[in-house]
Design a protein that fits this description.
InterPro entries: HMA_dom_sf, Homeodomain-like_sf, HTH_AraC
Order of helices and strands: EHEEHEHHHHHHH
Radius of gyration: 19 Å
Protein name: Helix-turn-helix domain-containing protein
Oligomer: single chain
Pfam families: HTH_18
Distance between the termini: 36 Å
Keywords: DNA-binding, Transcription, Transcription regulation
Number of strands: 4
Organism: Hymenobacter nitidus
Length: about 190
């Protein structure tokens, strides 16, 4: 059975999967599987990515045509999973070990492709991703800064605080005082 595999940028959560599935079905396509960054169509509805691009673009998604763009989006998705790995693993892997294992490619290769297509290093993207997760945890008000730092594998609350200020331009205290803290959607990180 022949299928068409689309690579789609800006899919960052389960709601994005539902939205893409819905958009494809509305356009008359039959997706057999939709995951973060990908949609597979069955053989009865082969699709031209150039035709689907405007449909998905209206909802904030982008069809990726090149292999480097596709790999970069896959790396971004894997880094989101890596944050969960950091939080839950007793002895978490390093970023490079996690990605190397995930993609069966050298970290050097992954890093070069990512930097070239995202205009940002993997390390800087991961820091931004971590800070967005920290913002989320801070906005709930359920954990202390030290608890958040521990969960996110920072060496200390001070290290987290310093990195938070570098990335956001504000202190953690200033962020907490803000009634409507500004958070970024994950697809805007790079």
């Amino acid at each position: 059975m022949k299928t068409t595999l689309l690579h789609i940028k800006n899919m960052v959560c389960p709601r994005c999967i539902d939205a893409v599935r819905h958009l494809l079905e509305q356009a008359g396509y039959r997706p057999t599987q939709v995951t973060l960054g990908q949609a597979q169509l069955d053989h009865t509805t082969p699709a031209d990515p150039a035709v689907l691009a405007p449909i998905l673009h209206e909802a904030g998604f982008e069809v990726l045509m090149g292999r480097a763009d596709q790999l970069t989006e896959q790396i971004k998705g894997a880094l989101g999973e890596y944050l969960e790995h950091l939080r839950t693993a007793r002895m978490p892997l390093t970023t490079s070990a996690f990605l190397t294992e995930r993609f069966a490619a050298t970290y050097s290769h992954l890093s070069k492709v990512f930097s070239r297509t995202a205009n940002l290093t993997i390390e800087k993207y991961l820091i931004r991703l971590k800070i967005e997760r920290v913002k989320e945890m801070l906005s709930y008000g359920e954990m202390t800064l030290s608890e958040i730092a521990d969960q996110m594998r920072y060496s200390s609350g001070q290290h987290l605080s310093n990195q938070f200020r570098q990335v956001t331009g504000r202190s953690v205290s200033e962020f907490r005082r803000d009634l409507m803290p500004k958070r970024m959607s994950l697809d805007q990180l790079a």
